[in-house]
Amino acid sequence: MTTVTSTEPPRAERLRELAERAGRELEEAPALEILRWAADTFGPRFCVTASMADAVVAHLAARARPGVDVVFLDTGYHFPETIGTRDAVAAVLDVNVITLTPRLTVAEQDAEYGPRLYERDPDRCCAMRKVEVLEAGLADYDAWATGLRRDESPTRAGTPVVGWDARRGKVKIAPIARWTDADVEAYVAEHGVLTNPLLQDGYASIGCAPCTRRTLAGEDARAGRWAGLAKTECGLHG
């Protein structure tokens, strides 16, 4: 009996090569074209994640793939305005909003780890209420899109429009990576896109309420997150 050995590379390797090639080829492409590539390439195994600061990427993705899954992480600590934006997005856009929640409620986490873990160990709090939740939620997808932009902070300056998320084994798409604040504002105005009311109240970046403050003049968009700490990212993006 002859044994045939496949020379085809493993699935993760194929996806990585696909991501790296697309990142080069789509670097100068419009955001909608990038999302149409993702929708055509991955079909239902593609989703969008949204923090609900605005609905720009969700709106773009709905144009590329009507009914696309939009994943939202409900940490239990969100501003009411953020939950309201999520509900409005679900009602107005042609998307399928999927809300993911942590294993523990806030009360259960307080009982197990003590109150205000976000003050004492913010990395651990983010890991349990965001990172672990997203990793489980992405299990059925090969690719996910985010609203990361290069001009938001120095840590995001090298964000590729299509890249490889090695930790999760997924293709990671940032269709508006090259956009500026002015580009976002223009798209919102042109299409009447939903935005979180907190953006008009001094918040440039919106996360969990206990760990987010208004930004000051001259600060970058992420300065209001975990103010006073060296922490600048929740761990979702590295």
What fraction of residues sit in β-strands? 5-15%
Percent helix among the residues? 25-40%
Gap from first CA to last CA:
48 Å
> Helix and strand succession?
HHEHEHEHHHEEEH
Unreliable parts: 4-8
- So what's the overall shape? globular
Number of helices in the DSSP assignment = 8
The average pLDDT value, as a whole number, equals 91
Could you walk me through the main structural features you see in this protein, from its secondary elements to its overall organization?
This protein is of the alpha/beta class and 238 residues long. It has helices at 11-25, 31-42, 56-64, 80-92, 106-113, 117-120, 122-137, 181-191, and strands at residues 46-49, 68-73, 95-100, 143-145, 162-165, 170-173. Strands 3-2-1-4-6-5 form a six-stranded mixed beta sheet.
Short key terms for the protein model shown above:
6 strands; alpha/beta; 37% helix; 8 helices; 11% strand; 6-stranded mixed sheet; globular; 238 residues
What topology emerges from the helices and strands here?
Elements: H1 11-25, H2 31-42, E1 46-49, H3 56-64, E2 68-73, H4 80-92, E3 95-100, H5 106-113, H6 117-120, H7 122-137, E4 143-145, E5 162-165, E6 170-173, H8 181-191
Parallel strand pairs: 1-2, 1-4, 2-3, 4-6
Antiparallel strand pairs: 5-6
